[in-house]
């Protein structure tokens, strides 16, 4: 299935917007003046003479479209409209929007073309191609309109956190945007079979951001185990996890928590440093204890429990902390003349021991490597990493309280490298670790996917993503829709594959037809494209520099400016653009050239006079 054209009468920022996603055809919707006789609108369909079949040399890629425009022009609004209204058929609330698409039957390679017209509007279709037949939708039905238009899964990717994103999980939509994934950890807790009290406990202990971080690490580990994986940077060979006990500071010099501070000091003194493995297990249990005590003493307001276990001087760290938690199994406290147990205590009484044994086993088998100082460990990335981290993650989320006692670090990955890894790993998980079977047709929407990248990576992004996604989903038919506000993407695409959106006054956006007079984009010079009004309004320097030069020009043109400004002169001399620098130097010379020559001559004359006086004095001494 390929989506060719959408006409939106009125939806948010989209008003009578013709969204031409097709490279093969040119669509144009015209409002008719004489509506009573011919209808409300006329849809014209023609063949795009500039279309090049199989341009991308990918048999499973039906089409690629780049939606180009400045911030606020409506790029993301198009993706939002698609993912909110099209998955699994047209939304029941749609009444006046039009759609054009094509599909191939499984039994044959014959392609059929459809125009889906709302029943509530009179639309005349003038089809020069003679390919499209009409379908109607709407009427009195409250159900979603389903046809071959619904025979597709939509995948939405965005690395940025979109605060206004619609979080509804439609069937047929796989949302791997950061905003959607941020909420999935919380949703998972609601869906799993926890008791109400256990669910509330888990929700209070974990943050959405921490869940997202753990999930991103897990996805990256899955991806990095892929054979033949190619990255534009050195592939991380291991994941480092640090033990974090910074919250211990809460108990230091805290008069109300003096007993806890003394206990932690005693355990620190009893720690074993000469044996790295024992020291690590000590630090692990110590961090779990501090994490629990922070919850128990800091975050639990009016906590009626008073659980404590006296420390025996002959005990080592592991013996005491394991005894501390195992004793929780039978702990009761009196509340309103009743003995009450604490479900969280019961869980920790066995979870901490299991977590501890899990790490002992990893150390014994050499699965992890203890770091220097016994305060960290590394998980080598191999074919077993996914299973190990999955078990670790499950234990960690159950044992930890509100705060964290682990920090996760890759090998000094930059923001751009993390973004790239996230992009690839999210799609990889959809393909190999998703919870449902994908349909044969995919529409993949990538909202500013090259954000956070170095310009060289931006230049390569389309080629890299096209190859990766077409190979990853080699058994599917895919349509790619990108959005961008930089020219790197458009330089890789013919103009017939680019939809230009221009924002005009009063927040009105113009969606340019494929029959536009813009210059060809494919293989166009990226620097030349930057000067296009769609990107930089023809201005190729930073706004601060522009304002600085504007002030200098005003100064040079001001008839009341009689004396040179040394700071302005130095600024002109350091301008990097040679033509602009020379022009301002000429303006400077025209205004202050003679004055500066007189000053220079006077300075030279003064130096000569000083030299003559010096020579006379020397002769006088002789």
TrEMBL record:
It comes from the Bacteria. Gene3D superfamilies: P-loop containing nucleotide triphosphate hydrolases (3.40.50.300). One of its GO terms (biological process) is DNA synthesis involved in DNA repair. PANTHER family: ATP-DEPENDENT ENDONUCLEASE, OLD FAMILY-RELATED, DNA REPLICATION AND REPAIR PROTEIN RECF. This is ATPase AAA-type core domain-containing protein. It comes from Pedobacter changchengzhani.
């Amino acid at each position: 299935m390929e989506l060719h054209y959408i006409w939106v009468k009125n939806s948010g920022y989209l008003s009578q917007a013709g969204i031409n996603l097709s490279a093969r055809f040119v669509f144009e919707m015209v409002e008719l003046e004489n509506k009573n006789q011919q209808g409300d609108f006329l849809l014209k369909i023609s063949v795009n003479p500039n279309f090049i079949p199989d341009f991308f040399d990918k048999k499973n890629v039906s089409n690629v479209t780049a939606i180009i425009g400045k911030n606020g022009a409506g790029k993301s609004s198009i993706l939002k409209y698609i993912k909110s209204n099209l998955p699994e058929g047209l939304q029941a609330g749609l009444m006046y929007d039009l759609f054009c698409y094509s599909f191939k039957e499984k039994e044959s390679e014959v392609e059929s073309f459809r125009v889906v017209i709302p029943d509530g509007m009179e639309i005349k279709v003038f089809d020069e191609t003679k390919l499209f037949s009409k379908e109607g939708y709407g009427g009195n039905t409250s159900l979603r309109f389903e046809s071959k238009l619904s025979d597709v899964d939509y995948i939405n990717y965005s690395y940025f956190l979109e605060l206004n994103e619609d979080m509804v999980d439609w069937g047929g939509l796989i949302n791997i945007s950061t905003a959607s994934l941020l909420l999935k950890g919380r949703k998972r807790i609601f869906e799993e079979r926890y008791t109400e009290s256990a669910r509330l406990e888990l929700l209070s202990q974990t943050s959405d951001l921490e869940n997202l971080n753990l999930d991103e690490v897990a996805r990256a580990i899955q991806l990095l185990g892929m054979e033949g994986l190619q990255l534009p940077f050195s592939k991380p060979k291991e994941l480092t996890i640090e033990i974090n006990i910074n919250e211990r500071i809460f108990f230091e010099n805290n008069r109300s928590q003096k007993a806890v501070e003394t206990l932690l000091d005693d355990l620190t003194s009893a720690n074993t440093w000469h044996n790295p493995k024992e020291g690590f297990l000590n630090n692990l249990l110590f961090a779990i204890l501090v994490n629990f005590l922070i919850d128990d003493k800091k975050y639990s307001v009016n906590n009626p429990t008073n659980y404590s276990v006296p420390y025996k001087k002959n005990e080592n760290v592991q013996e005491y902390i394991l005894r501390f938690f195992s004793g929780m199994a039978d702990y009761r406290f009196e509340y309103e003349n009743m003995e009450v147990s604490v479900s969280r205590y019961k869980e920790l009484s066995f979870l901490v021991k299991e977590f501890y044994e899990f790490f002992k086993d990893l150390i014994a088998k050499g699965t992890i490597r203890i770091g220097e100082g016994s305060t960290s460990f590394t998980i080598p990335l191999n074919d077993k990493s996914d299973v190990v981290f999955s078990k670790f993650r499950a234990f960690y989320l159950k044992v930890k309280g509100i705060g964290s006692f682990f920090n996760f670090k890759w090998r000094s990955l930059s923001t751009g490298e993390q973004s790239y890894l996230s992009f690839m790993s999210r799609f990889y998980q959809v393909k190999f670790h998703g919870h449902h079977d994908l349909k044969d047709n995919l529409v993949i929407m990538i909202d500013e996917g090259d954000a956070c990248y170095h310009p060289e990576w931006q230049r390569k992004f389309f080629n890299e993503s096209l190859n990766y996604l077409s190979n990853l989903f080699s058994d599917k038919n895919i349509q790619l829709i990108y959005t961008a506000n930089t020219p790197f993407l458009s330089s890789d695409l013919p103009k017939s594959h680019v939809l230009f959106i221009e924002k005009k006054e009063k927040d009105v956006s113009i969606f340019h037809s494929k029959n536009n007079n813009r210059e060809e984009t494919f293989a166009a010079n990226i620097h030349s494209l930057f000067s296009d009004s769609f990107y930089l309004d023809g201005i190729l320097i930073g706004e601060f520099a522009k304002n600085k030069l504007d002030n200098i020009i005003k100064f040079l043109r001001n008839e009341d400016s009689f004396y040179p400004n040394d700071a302005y002169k130095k600024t002109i001399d350091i301008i990097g653009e040679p033509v602009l620098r020379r022009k301002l130097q000429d303006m400077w010379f025209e205004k202050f050239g003679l004055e500066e020559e007189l000053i220079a001559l006077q300075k030279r004359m003064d130096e000569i006079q000083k030299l003559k006086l010096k020579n006379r004095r020397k002769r006088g001494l002789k």
